[in-house]
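Got a spare moment? Tell me how you read both lines of this record:
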Amino acid sequence: MSADPTTIRVRYDAGHVMLSGAVEQELVITAQTMLNQLLETASQRSTDSIAIATGAYAIDRVIKRTSDINNECGIRTFRVVFEVADAAFWSAPDITEMLTDILWHLTGDTWLVSFSQRDMLYQTSSVQRLLGLKDPRPTRAALYSGGLDSAAGLANQVISTDETYILLTVGHHPSIRSSSLHQVATLRNLLHPKPLHHASFIVKFNGGVAGKMKAQETSQRVRGLLFYTTAAVLAEACGIEEIEVFENGVGAINLPLTEGGMVDGLSTRGAHPGVLAKIGQLLSKTLDKPIRFSLPFLHSTKAEMLRTLADRAHLPDWLKLSRSCIHSSLRISGKRHCGQCAACIERRQAFRAAGITEDIRDYDFDLFGGATPKEPGYLLTYLENARWWITEHPRVRSRLERHRILSDMTQLPLASIESLLMRHAKESLDTYGDLDLRDAA
C-alpha cells in the first residue's frame, strides 16, 4: 500500500530528525558534550519524547500559515505519524489525547496524530548517565533563553537562594548558544554564586523547504514543547522534579489584545500556567517520574522583575546584554533591537518603569524620539487596552474570564490576575501615555 501523500512521517536517528511524505525536511540536533551524553543514554521513551517534540516543532515551522476568506486565522491541519520505540504507550488513547490537546493549545491548529513502531530501537548506551557535572550537583533546573525575563529571573533567583542551578538553553541558531553562555558567565563573575551549570541544545534545518528563514512560519508556537521536553529529560537525569520558567506574569497569562486573538494560533501560549500543567502531566507519564513546571514570577510584571535589581552594582548593565526583539535576523550594524515590535515595546516599558536608563543606540527606532512608528497599530491597541484596565472596562474583564477558561487557568484567582494586569496597565500608560500618536490613529 502506498503512503498517504497528505501525511507527514517523523523519524529520529542519532541527532537527526527526518520529515517525509507531505513534506521533506531534515533537522540536525547539536548539543554540548553534557547533553550528547544524556541523549546517548536516555531511555527509549525519553528519546521518543524528544523525537516527537522536535518533529512537531519542525512541522510547525516548515508549513506556513495561509489565510483566505474561509480561514482568516490561517488555521492548519496536520496528519502526522511519529515513528517511536514504544508505540503501545503513545497510542494509548489518554496519551494521544494529551499530546494533541497540548499541540492544539500551543498552535490553535488541528493535529491528527498517530504512531508507528520503529523497526529497531534507538542506539543508546546502557551505561549509567554521567553528565560530567562538577560538585556541587544541581538542585534546581531552569530554562534560559537569553531574553530579558530569563536574565532578570535568573539574577533574582541566584540572589535569593543558595541552591545550585542547571540551566538549559534551546535555540535554532548557534548565536543563541554563544550569547547565552556569555551572559551566564558574566553573571557568575558579578555575583560569584554557586556554580551555574549550563547546557545547550540547538536544532537547525538542513536544506529542504525551510532552508531559508523567509520560507519558514514565523510564529513558531511549538518551540515551547521542545524546550520543556528537553528540560524534563535533563532534569530527570539530575534527579530534579521542578523546572523553573522565568517569565513575567503578564507574558505568561498573555491575555490577547483583541477578541480575534482568543481563538487563533497567533497568540503565544507557551508559558500559560494551564499549558505548563498539561505538559508536566504528559512528561511525568512519559518519564515515569514526577515533572512539573513552575513560574516563580507569575505575580510580577516585567518591570517589577527588573526593579528589584536596579540598584545592584553592574546588574542593570548586565540586563541590557539580553535580547528581546522578535526579529532574530535583524541585520543592522550595531543594532540588536528593531524598537517597534511587541517585544521591544514591552522591553522599553519595563526598563523605564524600573528606572533603568537604556542605551538608545541598541535600537533601530527610538519610540521616544518623536517620530511615529512605521506600524503603530499594535502600540495603539496596547495603550487602548491599558486605558480599559485602568477604568475597569467590562470588555477586558470579560475577555480575561473567557481566556482563563479557554486556557485552563481557572485555578488562578481572578482578583490576583486583574491586579497584575492593572499594575502593568499603569506602567504602560506612565511610559507611553504621553506619546503623540494622533497622526497614526
